Amino acid sequence: MVCFLLIFSYRGMRKVKGVMFFDMQYMILVMLPALVLAGIASLMVKVTFNRYSRVRCYSGLTGAQAAERMLRTSGVFDVKVEETGGFLSDHYDPTKKVLRLSPGVYESQSLSAVGVACHEAGHALQHADQYVPLVLRTVLVPVTNISSMLAFYVVAAGFMFRPLLYVGCAMFAVAFLFSVVTLPVEWDASARAKQHLVNTGIVSPGQEIEAGRVLNAAFLTYVAGAVGSLLTLLYYLMRAGIIGGGRDRD
Question: Which of 38, 67, 101, 236 is closest to 155 using CA atoms?
Fold first, then answer.
């Protein structure tokens, strides 16, 4: 949390004639909306997950068993399902073909657990099908990691050496592109999960809507992330004078 505040505080400074000033524009246009959206999305995920974590799924399968059923009935036999630590730390690792589920998902028979587990199994099915957006996102991962670490520092240096400002904006553009590509990947994984939850008898037809609410709430976190990335990109494009006609002066 301390590191998070320091990063945003530093990002909220602007350099004018060699002096750093608090940039209220950044706080109002970028930080505040991003934090509000992320907070609302996170709250909805927790509330929805907790609500349906008390509802037992029709089949009585655990999250791990539901994921395995979805994988096997889809003809995927080379993906392992393992338990991992943390709360909602569930993810699919395409490099090792391992689906890792948090304890609250791996062992639980709730609608929340099977919904999350089958969503991650959906990513494994995407990997097996070479789903194009997933392939593109995988390609973008290393570039995005580097851009995310260096973008702000490059932009900060750009206030002294103008060409670097454009390079920094390009790095923010990569992060935004990654967040946009992530949206169809996550939506498709949830769509696959919803279909298999009913078709394989994991949930009853009546429970499909309830399980879908868990998946829809989780999807909102990715929407919030994409909006935050867009706001950041637009802000620095404006600061660089690429849009809006504005331009910082040294």
Answer: 236
